[in-house]
Amino acid sequence: MPASTPRPGGPDPIDLLAVGELLTEEERLIQATVRRFADDRIRPQIADWFERGAFPVRELAPELGKLGLLGMHLDGYGCAGASAVAYGVACLELEAADSGLRSFVSVQGSLAMRAIHAFGSEEQKQQWLPDLAAGRAIGCFALTEPDFGSDPANMRTTARRKGEDWVLSGSKMWITNGSEADVAVVWAQTEQGVRGFLVPRGARGFTATDVHGKLSLRASVTSELAFDEVLLPANAVLPGVSGLRGPLSCLNEARYGILWGTVGAARDCYQAALEYAKGRVQFGRPIAAFQLTQEKLVEMALELEKAYLVAWRIGRLKEEGRARPAHVSFGKLNNVRTALEIARSARTVLGANGITTAYPVLRHANNLESVLTYEGTSEIHTLILGEAITGEAAYQ
């Protein structure tokens, strides 16, 4: 993590426990590369994009693809095949710039590409994955519906047979990249259970309408998708899975990216508060010299390091093949909650300046309100952990 200005021989104030030293040389190199991209390409413009509610997907996707960040944890088809922790630190640096940027990369790689990679036919993989990895094509993942978010088993979108073809009907809501997607991975009820379908941009009866008026994730494309008797060929279905195991396994991959990304948002808020406190003078001295301000900064530093360690440990478990959904829920629940509290506390250090786009903290706080509830609400992750602890399911 980047340093502030430590006392000679003292710890790095941004990484007091030197958690970054637990990363391999390759992981640190990836982290530094993504950080430079974010600093050079995203930070100078992100406040403007957020204020205007804009995100230049088509412009940024090829650049992210060139860096190998799209589907970077997948193997083959133009994907980098990076380790879990390498992917994690990339997500950390992306979300340190903005949650919308990390969200785009997560949806492209961990949801759309991962679904095709894990459950698609070889023909589907060859058709879509190389272009998605390079950023020449955009993907989205359509599971959530207007009335069914945490309860996807009761989704109303359906696909029925018509000869050898399929007819898709229904709607999906809160779909990142929806209106920009060249291919939508759409989950629907069928006679064989929930199945995934690849719906190309421009399919007759398929429309995407952007959601406006957002106060969170403004630098991100969010859409509602509608399917009015969309006729799809037989080879549009993902052959490798049926039931909710398919989409839920993809969500687990996206949640893993979130538990790393939110550490980046938290770090950015803490660093902004620390730098501001050292330069803001009140009553003749920097507010960093006041006890109450130091207490806030210390609490932020403590929680930031703990969240970083949680992410690192889950990443290593994932690399060993030992990470379970409950581990990912642990990280998602803890780290999002931690990041949101750090953002709110940092805002108080900045005072009125903290509510402007000149500083990142309230932008991060607003974004984190969405991150708190997407890819599984806090309540859902609490129940996943409750079941892991007690052996009793309490979802209903």
From TrEMBL:
All copies of domain Acyl-CoA dehydrogenase/oxidase N-terminal, residue ranges: 24-135
Biological source species: Kitasatospora nipponensis
Cofactors: FAD
Sequence similarity: Belongs to the acyl-CoA dehydrogenase family.
Protein name, UniProt field: Acyl-CoA dehydrogenase family protein
Domain Acyl-CoA oxidase/dehydrogenase middle: 140-230
This protein's UniProt keywords: FAD, Flavoprotein, Oxidoreductase, Transit peptide
Domain Acyl-CoA dehydrogenase/oxidase C-terminal per the UniProt entry, residue ranges: 243-389
